[in-house]
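Tip: read the tokens left to right.
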């Protein structure tokens, strides 16, 4: 045996200049090239390359937007966003009111939620390519458009609020430095006036500066992120060093604290330096009043709301996913590193603050870090750079989320202006819209008030992220295999529950409102959004599959009880074009049971192995169009009868299998096309093709031979009986119009004929078939359309009519069926002896009798007798079918019913 060398594969790429770049046949070179392009390729085409070349378009354009690594793209933005207004402006507020022990406890809670959420983010982001949109992209591609769109919208609003929060903090720091009695201003001089509207003017000006930077492009900010971060770290280090170098002295109350300054006396607050006494006094909580919010009383929840807003920046790196070289690599490392660095910074600053500053200083002067700094401008620079960069980052992030929502067409035409307003990859319209919303939030004015709203919205986003990861983990989907392994269902659950609990701890009203708004958005998007986004995949489908499989295994057919019987229908459909009314009726008849549409393609099975794959989509579209809750089962067989055997045996799964088979009647009527009739409620062009060959479900031509013979149809009835399934045969349903039944006052009754007309007996009303008929008629009566109709059970006039009436009345009472008993006196005029001597004449008279009673009948249920010979000859079968035809001629929509098993119960 000789070993052959595998054929080499020559692959080359076309670059932007048109030059074709050949690649060797070594797999590693090919893999390396695909790795470098993986995040940017938008093509999912599996077509073979033409002429041995794979076209990737302009490679330079594809990679131009992704330039950032884990440090500049994730770590620095995360740290800046988490520091924001909290680092230099609110650490004293938190420690001064909550005390050191409670502060550390609150940081532990906040960072526990944060760490678990980061684990979820890392798991999702390392499970596939993350594109622009960050957290919204992760959530929407997992939860689907409804949940993803609603959470994405609220996350967009969270970034808007966060930008306003940081601007408010920035202005607060500037006022305390350059306003009246500002720390950097000589006595009795100032640059900035103070007051609500002055502050609004300053924040608006900074917001406009943000706008200008964003319009120039986010790349400018991205390039300076590391420099800004370095400046903030230097300022932070200067504050930490100052605790060790600054001697004890007294600090004046800032001018912004009008509630203390209204006494017109100078109030001095103590900076003690490192002191065990000061440290001990600051261990426990002592809640005071917030002088920036009209002296509102401070509580645990309000402190935590402010504290948590300082750690909500964990998604700043994920928001830049569209600019990252390798999001799956950068997001986990950069985010976890940023969380660790900020945690150490906050804890250290809190401990030093508690050990050196009196309680009064912390509660009455939120910018105490400025006067105690060895060089106060360090703190000023730190406040300005941390808050302004965070506000700019949030504005950029919110505009990118809005752009992603618009691209996904979540809100249809409502956000089309965003797609039109893009210039050189910069979403100008999204930036302008986000800027306008930030401007509105700035009217609130108070940093602490905005902080609570900001925390609630971000916590809601964390709920969604943890829920997303939890769902992916619980479904055990084979394709969920993230490279980040340090997570589990427990971490997701703890992050989710912690987020929900703390939302209501911070502000129950805001939390309830945000959940209500989220639910409202979900419903609106579900019913009105044009976005189907089936290519995204929805975790709901995976969860449903997981649960359905589990419960199907628990559904044991050996434990079935007649009390809980329900119809499980298999409707054999020759052509849905002519069967829409029957499909609708059987959907009502199923009573929340299983409903399967079965179809047999008569052909050679071996040449149609892909028949189901090719046609199932059209059938599912049909189900949606007719608006029924049904499954579809298709098969290919040599005959309709053989196909019926396949479907009866194999339809359903486990204990959820059809117990009733429904057939259309075999006659010579020309089938109606409900899809093209002008008066049809099912009229549609969805199934029309450009040519006749492309038309879906083409009808049989008038001169075309049927795929089914009359004898085979009767044999199918017998087969169903032998397979121990209930049988229903629907006739005249071309006359059935559900809308007409509602509007037309002529229809008053639902009729039941519990008598075997092919061999009448006094016990017919109490056998299995009649009880099955009564059960079906009772189900139809439960449907809203038929509630106004009277259920009428016909009793044939016999010698012992009174006794029969009492027995039937007792039966209906026992079965809890409210029905009117109608005595048919004309029955006495029919000679039963003609049943054997002249059956055709007998059947004609019975048909006339039924027809005379049905002038106001909407639906008629008639007893279906079985053929005398189950395996009769073709002639016997045809005669039997002719008798059924004569029996039901010219009746309203009629259901011939034969039951084989008990379906009613009189026990509790």
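Filled-in amino acids:
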């Amino acid at each position: 045996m000789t070993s052959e060398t595998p054929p080499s594969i020559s692959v080359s790429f076309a670059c932007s200049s048109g030059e074709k770049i050949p690649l060797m046949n070594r797999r590693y070179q090919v893999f390396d090239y695909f790795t470098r392009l993986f995040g940017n390729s938008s093509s999912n085409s599996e077509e073979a390359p033409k002429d041995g070349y794979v076209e990737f378009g302009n490679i330079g354009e594809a990679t131009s937007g992704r330039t950032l690594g884990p440090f500049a793209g994730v770590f620095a933005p995360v740290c800046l966003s988490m520091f924001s207004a909290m680092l230099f402006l609110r650490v004293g507020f938190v420690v001064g009111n909550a005390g050191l022990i409670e502060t550390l406890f609150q940081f532990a809670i906040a960072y526990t939620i944060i760490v678990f959420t980061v684990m979820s983010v890392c798991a999702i982001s390392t499970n596939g390519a993350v594109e622009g949109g960050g957290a919204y992209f992760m959530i929407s591609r997992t939860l689907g458009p409804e949940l993803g769109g609603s959470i994405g919208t609220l996350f967009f609003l969270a970034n808007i609020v966060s930008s306003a929060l940081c601007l408010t903090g920035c202005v607060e720091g500037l006022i305390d430095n350059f306003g009246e009695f500002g720390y950097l201003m000589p006595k009795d001089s100032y640059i900035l006036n103070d007051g609500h509207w002055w502050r609004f003017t300053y924040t608006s000006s900074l917001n406009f500066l943000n706008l200008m930077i964003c319009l120039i492009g986010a790349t400018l900010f991205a390039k300076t992120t590391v420099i800004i971060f370095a400046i903030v770290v230097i300022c932070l280090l200067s504050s930490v060093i100052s605790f060790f170098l600054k001697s004890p002295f007294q600090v004046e109350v800032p001018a912004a604290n009008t509630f203390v300054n209204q006494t017109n006396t100078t109030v001095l607050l103590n900076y003690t330096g490192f002191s065990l006494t000061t440290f001990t006094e600051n261990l426990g909580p002592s809640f005071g009043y917030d002088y920036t919010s009209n002296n509102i009383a401070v509580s645990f929840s309000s402190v935590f709301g402010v504290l948590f807003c300082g750690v909500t920046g964990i998604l700043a790196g994920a928001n830049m996913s569209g600019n990252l070289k390798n999001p799956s690599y950068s997001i986990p490392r950069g985010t976890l590193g940023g969380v660790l660095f900020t945690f150490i910074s906050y804890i250290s600053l809190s401990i030093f603050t508690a050990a050196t500053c009196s309680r009064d200083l912390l509660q009455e002067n939120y910018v105490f870090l400025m006067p105690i700094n060895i060089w106060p401008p360090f703190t000023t620079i730190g406040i300005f750079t941390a808050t302004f960069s965070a506000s700019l980052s949030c504005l950029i992030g919110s505009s990118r989320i809005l752009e992603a929502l618009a691209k996904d067409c979540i809100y249809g035409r409502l956000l089309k202006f965003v797609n039109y307003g893009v210039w050189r990859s910069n979403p100008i319209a999204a930036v302008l819209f986000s800027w306008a919303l930030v401007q509105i939030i700035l009217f609130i004015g108070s940093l602490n008030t905005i902080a609570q709203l900001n925390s609630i919205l971000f916590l809601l986003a964390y709920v969604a992220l943890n829920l997303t990861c939890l769902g992916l983990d619980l479904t055990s989907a084979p394709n969920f295999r993230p490279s980040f392994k340090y997570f589990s269902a427990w971490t997701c659950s703890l992050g989710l529950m912690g987020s929900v609990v703390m939302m209501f701890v911070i502000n129950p009203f805001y939390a309830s409102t945000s959940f209500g708004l989220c639910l409202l958005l979900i419903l609106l998007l579900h019913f009105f959004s044009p976005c189907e986004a089936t290519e995204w995949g929805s975790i709901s489908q995976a969860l449903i599959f997981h649960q359905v499989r589990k419960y199907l295994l628990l559904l044991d057919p050996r434990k079935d009880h007649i009390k809980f019987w329900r119809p499980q229908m298999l409707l054999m459909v020759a052509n849905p074009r002519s069967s829409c009314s029957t499909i609708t009726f059987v959907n009502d008849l199923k009573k929340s049971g299983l409903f399967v549409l079965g179809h047999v393609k008569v052909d050679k099975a071996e040449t149609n192995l892909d028949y189901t794959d090719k046609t199932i989509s059209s059938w599912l579209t049909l189900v949606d169009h007719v608006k029924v809750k049904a499954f579809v089962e298709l098969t290919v067989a040599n005959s309709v009868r053989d196909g019926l055997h396949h479907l009866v045996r194999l339809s359903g799964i486990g204990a959820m299998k059809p117990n009733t088979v429904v057939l259309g009647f075999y006659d010579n009527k020309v089938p109606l096309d409900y899809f093209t009739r002008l008066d049809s409620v099912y009229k549609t062009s969805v199934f029309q093709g450009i040519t006749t060959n492309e038309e879906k479900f083409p009808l049989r031509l008038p001169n075309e031979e049927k795929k089914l013979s009359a004898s085979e149809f009767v044999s199918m009835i017998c087969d169903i009986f032998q397979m121990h399934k209930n049988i229903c045969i629907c006739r005249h349903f071309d006359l059935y119009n559900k809308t007409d039944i509602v509007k037309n006052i002529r229809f008053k009754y639902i009729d039941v004929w519990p008598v075997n007309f092919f061999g009448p007996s006094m016990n017919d009303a109490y056998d299995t078939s009649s009880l099955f008929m009564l059960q079906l008629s009772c189900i139809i009566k439960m449907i809203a359309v038929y509630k106004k109709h009277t259920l009428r059970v016909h009793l044939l006039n016999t010698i012992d009519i009174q006794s029969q009436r009492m027995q039937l009345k007792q039966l209906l009472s026992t079965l809890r069926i409210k029905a009117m008993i109608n005595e048919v006196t004309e029955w006495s005029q029919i000679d039963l002896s003609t049943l054997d001597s002249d059956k055709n004449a007998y059947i004609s008279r019975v048909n006339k009798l039924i027809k005379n009673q049905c002038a106001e009948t909407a639906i008629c249920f008639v007893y279906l007798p079985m053929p005398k010979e189950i395996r009769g000859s073709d002639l016997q079968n045809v005669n039997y079918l002719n008798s059924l035809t004569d029996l039901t001629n010219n009746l309203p929509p009629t259901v011939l019913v034969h039951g084989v098993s008990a379906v009613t119960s009189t026990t509790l």
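Residues 91-125 form the longest helix (35 residues). The radius of gyration is 38 Å.
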